[in-house]
Each structure stands twice: as structure tokens, then as C-alpha cells.
Amino acid sequence: MTTAERLLRADLRDFRGYVSARSTRQEGSVWLNANESALPSLADPDGTSQRYPEPQPAELLKRLAAHYQVEPTQLLAGRGSDEGIDLLVRTFCEPGDGCVLIAPPTFGMYAVSAKLHGAQVIEVPLLDTPRGFIHDLDALATHTLEAKASLVFLCNPGNPTGATLDPGAISQLARRLAGRSLLVIDEAYGEYGDVASASRLLGAHDNIVVLRTLSKAHALAGARIGCVMAQASVIALLRRVQAPYPLAAPCIGMVLKALQPTALSELADRIAVVRKERKILHKRLSGLDGVRCAYPSSGNFLLVRFDDAAAILARLLQAGIVVRDMRAYEGLDDALRISIGTPTENAAVVAVIEGNARVSA
Asked: What are the Aminotransferase class I/classII large domain coordinates in residue numbering (predicted)?
């Protein structure tokens, strides 16, 4: 029995999910099986928007699988990484029970999804060291096993820390949790770092799950498409729980365009620019008075501690620059997270923090 089969909710063992009108492949010229409008939409008279899209379009899965170097059966497409997180919690945590483990400071949706489901959230905080935030892997494994947590969520690169976890450490942790927990590696910012994807470990570990999204590097946040990657047996269980039509047809079309060779070539150039700008901004911020620490980052953002974060935030807002206030996060009461913008936007951030910028009208 695989790790996922052991962890599957008992009440879902015989559950097969909703069978939609598009869930089985059928051929025909007159479609009268889904209670759709026979006439095209007035908003899309020349399109086919009156028809439900395929739940998991074959061409989309093929393109995504090729891009992430996995098999189509190892991939589930959904509404960004958020849906993947929610599906994992609903599939492997008993309602009102269950347990997940997170390593704060980290992406808030892990805890939100767990709490909405009534699952307990165990925290093993990251260690704040002179070389940046790092995971306490031994503590992660120990607390996971003691709490019988079915899911462990690790963000790699971390949000908001920008820290990374190498594949060797992930593999070692997966071995310790084998048969007991699923290790979920959220690689929303994976394109911006140098660490190989944990998807390469899927063949060796039945308890590794990888989340990816097209919201960040691919600049498709508005399309809301991401994917879950895992062994085929895990994907099959998640498909039982997923909503019948998770993907909007126009968004599917955008992703297919984004995965064409010419688009991927330009994407590589864009990522290189972000990485260059990240390095420049990190160096400039690190040398400013009032900046306690600008953490190194493998994401498209920097986490920065200030002597007076409230004053810096107010000045940035006055100048029309919106950054993420991290002060409500435990241990980050002096920190802001700054996304990497264009060279002009990044220069404006530095100028405002230096106190040399005009306030916008």
C-alpha cells in the first residue's frame, strides 16, 4: 500500500467523485448531454463558451508534463497552487480532525486551508541564521511523526524568506516520513532559483508531492492555473475530489500559448532580468541606513528588516509604492517583503527608502 493510500480519508476509500458530462471521452456532432445552451453566448457569439471545457484537457496536460519533465498521469491541473493545497487537505485530512505541519514564516494558505477543514496545524519555525532562514529538518521529521501529521508543507524557494532547500535534503526527509506523511514541496517561485525541482524525485518517493503555478514567472496570475505533481496513484486520488470543471476555457488557451517554444525562450530572458535586478536591489538595500537585513532570495522578492518598518512603509505608500507588510507574521515585526519590479520601479523603491524621492500626487 502506498503512503497516499494509507493516508486517504477512510470515508473516501470507496468515493469516486462526481462524473461530469465531460469526464468521459465521447464523439458526436449534436451535444445534448450537459444541459448547456444550444446557442452561443451573446458575449462570445463566435466562440464555444456555451460548452463546458474538459476537466483535464489532454493537450494541456501533455504540454505541462513536458515542461515540468513528468508524465501526464503524474500531473493534475487546477486553479493555481491554492486549489492544490485545498485538494490535498480535503483528501488526506479527516474533517474536523487530521493534522498538517508547516514551517513559518511561510505561505499563509497552508494554515488557512487546514483550519477551514478543522485540521490541527503544527508549526516548526524556520531558523533565522546569519546566512538566512533554514529548515530544522530533524525537528520537522520528529514533530511530524509525533503528531501523526498527514501533510508537511514546505515552500521552496520560501515565501516570504526566499530560502531554498536542496533536493538531497528533501529526499532524506521524504525517506524519514515514508509511509507516514506526504511531503508537499511548493515550488511557486522555482523558476527564479538554482535548485533542481523536487519533481525529479517522484520516481524514488511515493510520498513527495510538488506544486507549481503559472502565476509568477509565466505572468498568468489572472488566469489562475497551476498544477500538482506526484506519483500517478496520488493524482488519481486527488481527481476524485476536484470540482467537475476546474479550468476556464480562455485560461487554458492562454497557458497553451505560454508553453510554446517561442514564449518559453522569451520567458528565460525575462527570468534572467528578474534575477539580475534582484541582485542589484539586494546590494543597494543592504547598504542603506536603517536597513537591518536584506535576506538573500531565490524568489522574485526580497524580505527586508528595518529599524523602523512602519515609517518606511508609510513613505513607500505616500510615493504610490505598495509592498507587502510582514509585521503581523511572528518574528517579522520589523519586516517588509518587496517584489522585484522593473529597473525603474526598483530604483524608485531605493530612492524612497533613502529619503530622496518626491511624493506622488
From this structure: 43-351
Contact 79, 246 (CB under 8 A): yes
User: 328-339: string of b/e by CB count within 10 Å (b at 16+)?
Assistant: ebeebebbbbbb
Cβ contact 114:120 at 8 Å: yes
More confident call, 27 vs 350? 350
Contacts of 63 (CB under 8 A, 6+ apart): 255, 256, 259
Determine the Cα–Cα distance for residues 31 and 205; give it in Å rounded to an integer: 43
Q: Could you say which architecture CATH assigns to the domain 263-354?
A: Alpha-Beta Complex (3.90)
Give the whole-angstrom CA distance, residue 66 versus residue 262: 15
Q: State yes or no: cis peptide before 250, omega within 30 of 0.
A: no
Q: What is the mean pLDDT of residues 263-285?
A: 98
Q: What is the rounded distance in angstroms from the CA atom of residue 95 to the CA atom of residue 194?
A: 38
> Domain spans of the chain?
3-259, 263-354
Contact call for residues 162 and 302 (beta carbons, < 8 A): yes
At 208-245, the pLDDT tens digits run 999 999 999 999 999 999 999 999 999 999 999 999 99
Is the CB of residue 181 less than 8 Å from the CB of residue 207? yes
User: Which H or E run includes 253?
Assistant: helix 249-258
The DSSP code sequence of 36-68 is --SSPPTTSTTS-TTSPPPSS-HHHHHHHHHHH
What is the number of other CB atoms lying within 10 angstroms of the CB of residue 40?
14
Q: Return the percentage of the chain with pLDDT > 70, whole number.
A: 98
Is the pLDDT score of 20 beyond 70? yes
Rounded to 5°, angle at Cα 149 from 214 and 230 = 35
What does the block give as the cell for 135? 529548515
C-alpha 269/C-alpha 292 separation (Å) is: 32
Cα-Cα-Cα-Cα torsion 115, 119, 122, 125, nearest 10 degrees, comes to: -30
pLDDT score of 360: 43
